[in-house]
Amino acid sequence: MNADFKQVGDTLVVRITGELDMLVTDQLRQAIDQRLDTAGIRTLVLNLEKVTFIDSSGLGVIIGRYKKVRAQQGRMYIVGASPSVEKILHFSGINKLVPLYRSEKDVVSN
Amino acid sequence: MWSATKGRWTSPGLELRMNVKNYVRFEFCSLPENVSFARSCVGAFASQMDCTLEDIEEIKLVVSEAVSNSIIHGYANDPGQKIEVEVTIYDNGNLEIIVKDYGKGIEDIDQALQPTYSSDSTRMGLGFTFMRSFMDEMEVISEPGKGTSVRLLRHFPSQGNQAMA
């Protein structure tokens, strides 16, 4: 797993590559939270375009970041999930809390 | 001993498994690194069945959930413990996966099987829900202090009654 961070104004975009299971969840959680805690972020965008696998540990990181962003009166979006990842997001009900978009551009234009 | 000509195990101890078409068993340390190893192995083994990529993805997911449960709940993240995985393909098209640990076991299985129940707030409590939803059968056998065994079964109808080549 690898995560690239890009901040534009109060928006943090996290582009994640690889598999999201229990091996990487602590690392990803800490890396995102560190930025959420310090950078005055109001909008968090998780780009899952290059995520090839997600299980409930990975979903736990997403739902935890959602709670944190909401507690800071911010918003969160997921973009680019592959069909197999999107299926799991739907199954868990996360899509009812965090809107899913096809691309980062779609988030901006909406 | 596996007999390719008879298409079954010939060891006396395995006579009950006559309807077995193929079988694999492996064990590994309860390390997070091994979660992806386990699901990849089972996914690769299951791919010899007549199933779709989507089926394989679902099988990898349930293995990931079961092995993660053993590491996190069974062994409280102690990396020096043992997890066993057994996968069997039966002649009738059934794929059986057993994930077994010797950890602390589950006090209340009914409670653990509830959707969104989790004794660890950083996960979503969806592990058993995924296993039950993506497999045709799920059986959890657990004894506090002795460990937990999860048996998952998925039926692939097109495999039924195929003779061993």
Care to describe what's here?
The complex is a heterodimer of chains A (110) and B (165). Chain A is α/β, with parallel strands linked by helices and 110 residues long. Chain A has one domain (2-109): 2-Layer Sandwich (Transcription Regulator spoIIAA), CATH 3.30.750. Chain A has four helices and five strands, in the order ββαβαβαβα. Chain A has a five-stranded mixed beta sheet with strand order 1-2-3-4-5. In chain A, a hairpin with a 2-residue loop joins β1 (2-8) and β2 (11-20). The longest helix of chain A has 16 residues, at 56-71. Chain A is globular, with a radius of gyration of 12 Å. The model of chain A has no long low-confidence stretch (mean pLDDT 94). Chain B is of the alpha+beta class. Chain B has a single domain, classed as Histidine kinase-like ATPase, C-terminal domain (Heat Shock Protein 90). Chain B is 29% helix and 28% strand. Chain B has helices at 33-46, 53-74, 109-112, 127-134; strands at 2-3, 8-9, 20-29, 82-90, 94-101, 137-143, 147-155. Chain B has a five-stranded antiparallel beta sheet with strand order 3-4-5-7-6, covered by helices on one side. In chain B, α1 runs antiparallel to α2 (53-74). The longest helix of chain B is centred in the middle third of the chain and has 22 residues, at 53-74. The A-B interface holds A 19, 21-23, 25, 29, 53, 55-57, 59-61, 63-64, 84, 88, 91-92 and B 32-33, 35-36, 39, 54, 57, 60-61, 64-65, 68, 71-72, 122-127, 130, 133.
Index terms:
heterodimer; A: 110 residues; alpha/beta; Transcription Regulator spoIIAA; 5-stranded mixed sheet; 5 strands; globular; B: 165 residues; alpha+beta; Heat Shock Protein 90; 5-stranded antiparallel sheet; 4 helices
